[in-house]
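Sequence only, no structure available. Ideas?
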Amino acid sequence: MSNSKRILVTGGAGFLGSHLCRRLVAEGHDVICLDNFFTSQKTNIADLLSQPNFELIRHDITLPIFLEVDQIYNLACPAAPGHYQYNPIKTMKTSVLGAIHVLGMAKRCRARVLQASTSEVYGDPEVHPQPETYRGAVNPIGPRACYDEGKRAAETLFMDYHRQNGLDVRIVRIFNTYGPGMHPYDGRVVSNFIRQALRGEDITIFGSGSQTRSFCYCDDLIEGLVRMMNSPSDCIGPINLGNPDEFTIRQLAELVIEMTGARSRMVSQPLPADDPTQRKPDITLARQRLGWQPTIPLSEGLRRTVDWFRAIRWSDYRPPTPNY
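Reply:
I predicted one. Tokens follow.
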């Protein structure tokens, strides 16, 4: 295709990265997937390995790499608390050094580069829902800080490269996302609940279950990423990408139990330190600048996700860390 681009996706074998690679390959772009397989595995992108416009590189983004590309999606970083807290120093290095290395590459290649930031930059928010103008309430010395502050530092680097070097950057803040392809042992609430329900285990709820989250289906999120990457040059961000429909954790557990037909009981455990009590994106900016909003409701997205979990072989997946 005439408008085909050379596109690098760091963290391309992860949950969102693999969906993004699949989308870009289908559009005819030459896609380079870079991943160190810490929390991902080749099965995620096995269907792409035979495609002539797909290339896989096993590499850790905390180390420099030199490639010639037109666009970079920087998705590399463990995203589940159990995984990013397993080696917090490495998590911070992945966010900060990873950002430095992709920004340096983008500067040399004159490429456009998108940073996959996170709603975690808002911490345990005092403003609800969270607009992009809110600066957050983050504990810089807490157990989640390696991820929260690492992503905040990456945003700083992106904006400084833009202001100092005129680099063409994009920043998106991703809220909770789920769907087929989630690692069964990634420790996130949706995959935990579905795995426990399908195995007939009790469903673990941290705290009272009254804390809220907003769950965005992966296809909607990928559409938002692609629109942001290809938006006009003045659309730098940050822009929130997420589903503004808000659910309590207990409501999610009840929905999963109903959908799977499980007889699981809900059992409570203490709430982890600095766990946010509310999380809901204000997506006014995404609607205005990208013409984007989620289209798949939680009931439909969960049904697709449960169907995928029923179809996989559990033996194909290994827990990346003891903390799942």
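Residues 88-109 form the longest helix (22 residues).
Hope that gets you unstuck.
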